[in-house]
TrEMBL record:
UniProt source species: Punica granatum
Taxonomy of the source species: Eukaryota, Viridiplantae, Streptophyta, Embryophyta, Tracheophyta
Keywords tagged on the record: Monooxygenase, Oxidoreductase
Top-rank taxon, per record: Eukaryota
FAD-binding domain: residues covered: 2-146
InterPro entries associated with the record: FAD-bd, FAD/NAD-bd_sf, MOase
Pfam families with a match to the protein in the record: FAD_binding_3
Similarity comment text for this entry: Belongs to the 3-hydroxybenzoate 6-hydroxylase family.
UniProt-recorded name of the protein: FAD-binding domain-containing protein
Gene3D superfamilies reported in the protein's UniProt record: FAD/NAD(P)-binding domain (3.50.50.60)
Length: 149
């Protein structure tokens, strides 16, 4: 929205979502609101006012109140719908599917440090900023010498 071009590299061949739903608390809803997508989700997902928790050992159940006058409760949202709403906000061709990251290195080009990403298909991408969300076998985490999960 502020003109910063982004590219999302996705290993999968298409948009996919595992699991049926995700529980989004009010802080997550505020983040989605800042992205401008809650107007599409509000019609489908109302805040949960209360729920029940059962202790599996004692079989006792107690009610949990999530909502109050001061705050909304969490919302249970279908993963696939959430992903689609987010994707619909992106400019075309922002997501590159079937893009497996092989390596990332830091280089200096024209006096500025940049990252060079090399993909399995032989493509190379130069970036000023890299955000890694690439899972337990993270190429990014390995590059940063982070300890294994």
């Amino acid at each position: 929205r502020v003109g910063i071009r982004a590219v999302v590299l996705e290993t999968a061949s298409d948009l996919r979502a595992t699991g049926a739903a995700i529980l989004l608390w009010s802080n997550a809803w505020l983040a989605l609101d800042a992205l401008g997508v809650t107007d599409k989700l509000n019609l489908l997902y109302a805040p949960i006012e209360r729920g029940f928790v059962t202790d599996v050992k004692t079989k006792s159940t107690q009610q949990v109140v999530y909502a109050s006058k001061e705050r909304d409760g969490p919302r249970l949202v279908h993963r696939k719908i959430l992903l689609q709403v987010l994707v619909d906000e992106l400019p075309p061709d922002t997501i590159r599917f079937s893009s497996k990251l092989n390596s990332v290195e830091s280089v200096v080009e024209d006096g500025h440090r940049i990252s060079v990403l090399r993909l399995q298909d032989g493509a190379t991408i130069k970036a000023k900023v890299v955000i890694g969300c690439d899972g337990v076998r993270s190429v990014i985490a390995k590059r940063l010498k982070l300890s294994p999960p």
